[in-house]
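Hello forum,

I keep getting stuck at the same step: I have a sequence, I want structure tokens, and every attempt I make locally crashes halfway through. Rather than fight my setup again tonight, could one of you with a working pipeline run this one for me? It's a single chain of 317 residues.
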Amino acid sequence: MTSSPTILITIDVEDWFQVENFKPWISYESWDCRELRVERNVHTLLDLFDAVSLCPPGGMPAAPKATFFVLGWIAQRLPHLVREIHNRGHEVASHGFSHALCATQPLEDLKKDLSQSRQLLEEIIGSRVHGYRAPSFSVNDDVLRVIGEAGYLYDSSFNSFELNSRYGRLNLADSDRVGVLYPISPGFFELPVSNLKFGTATLPLGGGGYFRLLPFPFFRLGVRRVLEKEGSYLFYLHPWEVDPAQPRVKEADFSFKFRHYVNLGSTLSKLKRLITSFPKANFSTCRQFINQNITARCARAAENAEKFLVFPEGKTK
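Reply #2:
Ran it on my machine without issues. Output:
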């Protein structure tokens, strides 16, 4: 684990009309008729990250870096936006193509979606795409196996908050974990969204609507507790959450509208406060975090192995 705590900011790049809660009122076929607002909202986030300068212990001043899980439907229409995310030093990862829930897709359709979205992103940025996040965290053990078989380095789809029925369930072993990093199989990892455990209860602390709804001092305290316990914290947000002027889906159920629109006007300033509240943290991409921990583990393994090397004179070093 790195010497200073690590915060992983992740952004699910989808637009206001693509969220799961509004699917009963907004059909996939109507997406092309909707106002695209995601580009300006992603620019707002990119500009915020560039405007903040942090200096973790032993490091040079640097802007925080994030991982952007991009929906293939968006990438197909805004390839220049995907390139800009990449060119500004952030990680581009896959959020699938059409925001279909993984757990309800036939496995062959899921395999096609995993391959199609990744190939599209790689063609746009000219670089390997390593990560995947399932829409609405709709993952299970079978889905996770298929993601690993598709050649991704990591998945970041598990949200342990159990009161949302769409969130999937995974059986993750704690034995080899490093903070939020869980080895699943050789060369494949899970990076779950961070929540805070209180006995048997789980406080949703990963971001999204919970970030907008909870008072900031309380949320910040929870993040500190996670960092003290785990050494790392993974946060998620959507570009539409910094857009209070987005169109309203008036016909949607009240509970869905409340969750979607609550406190949109303060999300951006709240996000800046969250970042600047942890000036000694490393704000890394998911790929960087995995690389750092793999390197550290290899170094420890080599150090331990060296203790048992036998030299010609019959003595260990």
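DSSP finds ten helices and eleven strands in the chain. If your local run keeps crashing, start a new thread with the error log.
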